[in-house]
Design a protein that fits this description.
Layout: H1 9-17, H2 31-48, H3 50-53, H4 55-62, H5 66-69, H6 71-90, H7 96-116, H8 120-148, H9 153-182, H10 184-205, H11 217-224, H12 227-246, H13 250-257, H14 262-282, H15 287-307, H16 311-339, H17 344-373, H18 375-395
Helix pairs in contact: 2-8, 2-9, 2-10, 6-8, 6-17, 7-8, 7-10, 8-9, 8-17, 9-10, 9-14, 9-16, 12-15, 12-16, 12-17, 12-18, 14-16, 15-16, 15-18, 16-17, 17-18
Length: about 400
């Protein structure tokens, strides 16, 4: 129970099994497993976006166009959309610590394949493996983290999201610099090494994590039949679609209003992202505010970028965009687990799948809009869809803990 007498997600699940929750009352637990899981998330997300950092050199080396090579990023999202809802069904009773370690091993193999690949088909195969690793790890990491630190689900979720921010703020620019200096293949060798480090950290610190009772197809079928949860998943897909219809073209949006300072504005987006992660964690007790405000901020920032050509206003729009969107993973992760506290694994898998589908669809539609009508039209599309997601969440009853 919390100090306000409310039952947290891990406690509710344990009570449903008739178990005693140890340590939850005081929110006690070890930070080491959570830090290891955060490192795993950072490594996986950093690996996901590596092709964007080294795209021209990679495309030239393996003999394909830059547009074709860009599919290396989309492939991870496609694989993730398939993996997220099915991995729990295929492994209903396997210890989740074992699964998480296996998924990090899959990431090691993926990065090694890309590092040595002589052609695009093998590269694509490696990236599909990474997509499966990312989706599976996201689906199980929160549950493993709150088992290690019971009663503090918002702290664990925020920590995992900070791993994403670290990967995008530090990892992507650093890999671009490294790729220019020593070539794109060493970048993937380095990613494989970091994946090994994350794997060893999880092995060394994470205790056994038994599968949630009832995990498997029956749990997934029960969760899918829940109208409120599925409506929430639909809203998550709308918000993620809105972001990714615009985000791949953020540099074009920046260059439309300024001749220089692109790197600093991208850094501003990342700093805003850190603030958004922390803000969502602080609003864990007021989830209705978080899940409505986050996509509203995202939509408002995109509308500002559509309307303005003033560098100061554009800077504000970029930073608010980072804040708004990076609130979304934390807030929605907590929303779905509290909507289905006795089916956390399946609920999280649907959240992950919604993101992966939206990344693929949003990027594809956004690209078509940019080609046909320009970057402002893509920003406008993203804003409208994100605001629709905000309105959707406002209409739903917020789960209580």
């Amino acid at each position: 129970m919390t100090s306000e007498g409310r039952v947290t997600v891990p406690e509710a699940a344990a009570e449903a099994r008739g178990e005693v929750v140890s340590g939850a009352a005081g929110g006690e637990g070890s930070w080491a497993p959570v830090m290891a899981l955060t490192l795993g998330i950072a490594t996986l997300v950093g690996s996901e976006f590596l092709p964007a950092s080294v795209l021209p050199a990679m495309a030239s080396d393996i003999g394909v166009s830059e547009g074709t090579a860009g599919l290396a990023v989309a492939a991870t999202a496609v694989a993730g959309a398939v993996t997220a809802p099915t991995i729990g069904v295929l492994l209903p009773r396997t210890d989740r610590r074992t699964v998480l370690v296996g998924l990090l091993a899959l990431a090691v193999v993926s990065n090694l394949i890309v590092a040595v690949t002589p052609d695009f088909p093998l590269l694509l195969a490696g990236r599909l493996l990474l997509g499966a690793a990312i989706a599976g790890f996201w689906s199980f990491a929160l549950g493993a983290g709150i088992r290690a630190m019971p009663g503090r689900d918002h702290v664990v979720s925020t920590s995992l999201a900070l791993g994403v921010s670290a990967a995008t703020i530090v990892g992507v620019p650093l890999s671009s610099v490294l790729g220019d200096a020593v070539g794109w293949r060493p970048v993937f060798w380095a990613a494989a090494g970091l994946s090994v480090l994350a794997l060893v950290s999880v092995v060394a610190t994470l205790p056994p994590v038994p599968a949630q009772p009832g995990a498997g197809f029956g749990m997934l079928r029960r969760v899918v039949s829940g109208r409120r949860l599925m409506a929430g998943v639909g809203c998550i897909a709308l918000v993620a679609f809105g972001n990714f219809a615009a985000y791949p073209f953020i540099r074009l949006a920046i260059e439309r209003v300024t001749d220089g300072g692109t790197v600093w504005l991208l850094l501003g987006w990342g700093v805003g992202g850190l603030a958004g992660n922390l803000a969502a964690g602080m609003l864990a007790g007021r989830l209705r505010v978080a899940v409505v405000a986050a996509p509203a901020l995202l939509g408002a920032s995109l509308l500002l970028l559509v309307a303005t050509t003033h560098p100061v206003l554009a800077t504000a729009g970029i930073v608010v965009w980072g804040i708004g969107f990076n609130m979304v993973p934390v807030a929605t992760q907590l929303w779905v687990t509290r909507a289905e506290p006795r089916s956390v694994e399946s609920a999280l898998s649907l959240q992950v799948a919604a993101f992966q589908v939206a990344i693929t669809a949003g990027s594809a539609v956004g690209g078509a809009v940019v080609d046909h009508s320009g970057v402002r039209a893509a920003m406008l599309l993203g804003a409208v869809v994100a605001l629709a997601g905000s309105a959707g969440f406002a209409s739903l009853r917020t789960p209580r803990v």
